[in-house]
Design goal:
Length: 262
């Protein structure tokens, strides 16, 4: 645990200056360094990524993902060149807040009176060719289910210019088993899932002391927003696909995935 913690701090201290140096060289250069950091974190946490399907990368993509843990960030960051959308409170987190700002995370508030401005800001990022990773549940869960997707963030599609080639792609992420194959059930899911009143640092130190887990990332069929009647139908499409993915990863029915979100 202590060795991995020290390696994490050393890797971060070594790559941040490099990231700052390559900023003038554009998105491709900075994303390359960021991906090195994400992959390094996956290795230090002994996360084995299992990718099913493929991310849509032909143009801007709005990735709608269920949320299980802060570990989702490093797992998704290791395979996607995209901007994370996070709650504003993350800005103030020790170490991770500054890192999130450095990689141009889009921070949003839960206040209703700020929704329109935030939606337009996200739409501007998409119009510039960026892709976004969004957690529409608004909170993390134990990984066994999906909470109702909040539809407000899907309203970003209405603010894009006519003719936009944006696609919305549902993505499900699960931590179903140890690398040894043993299922993470019966309370073991809390070793990797981070939800409720859990505290970040003790949980992360615990992860550094474990042998590792399999992370299943399933990319579902992307859809053009225009194919859906409105943002509610779009959100429901994504929620349904994600619930299916969670059920497949954990070996139970989609109906159970809806019931078990905690």
């Amino acid at each position: 645990m202590l060795i991995r913690s020290a390696l994490f701090l050393g890797m971060t201290a070594g790559l941040v200056p490099v990231y700052l140096l390559v900023l003038p060289f554009g998105k491709r250069a900075r994303n390359g360094i960021a991906r090195l950091w994400f992959r390094g974190c996956c290795n230090l946490c002994a996360l084995r990524l299992r990718i099913i399907g493929a991310p849509h990368e032909a143009g801007s993509t709005f990735y709608a993902v269920n949320h299980v843990s802060y570990l989702d960030i490093v797992a998704l960051g290791a395979v996607l060149d995209a901007v994370f959308v996070a709650k504003r409170e993350v800005r103030g987190w020790p170490l991770f807040g500054p890192l999130a700002r450095l990689v141009r995370t889009e921070f949003i508030s839960r206040k209703a009176n700020e929704a329109e401005v935030q939606t337009r800001s996200l739409a501007a990022r998409l119009a510039e060719g960026e892709s976004l990773i969004v957690f529409p549940e608004g909170t993390s869960t134990d990984g066994f289910g999906v909470r109702p997707f909040k539809t407000s963030l899907f309203g970003v599609t209405a603010h894009l210019p006519e003719g936009s080639d944006l696609k919305v792609q549902p993505v499900s992420i699960s931590y179903p088993r140890y690398v040894t194959g043993k299922a993470l059930i019966g309370g073991l899911e809390a070793l990797y899932a981070w939800y409720g009143e859990m505290t970040l640092l003790p949980h992360l130190l615990g992860v550094f002391g474990l042998r590792g887990a399999e992370v299943e990332i399933r990319f579902h069929e992307p859809v053009a927003p225009a194919a859906m009647a409105d943002r509610k139908e779009l959100a429901r499409y994504c929620e349904d696909r994600v619930a299916e993915g969670i059920a497949l990863a954990n070996g139970f029915s989609r109906q159970r995935a809806y019931r078990q979100a905690a």
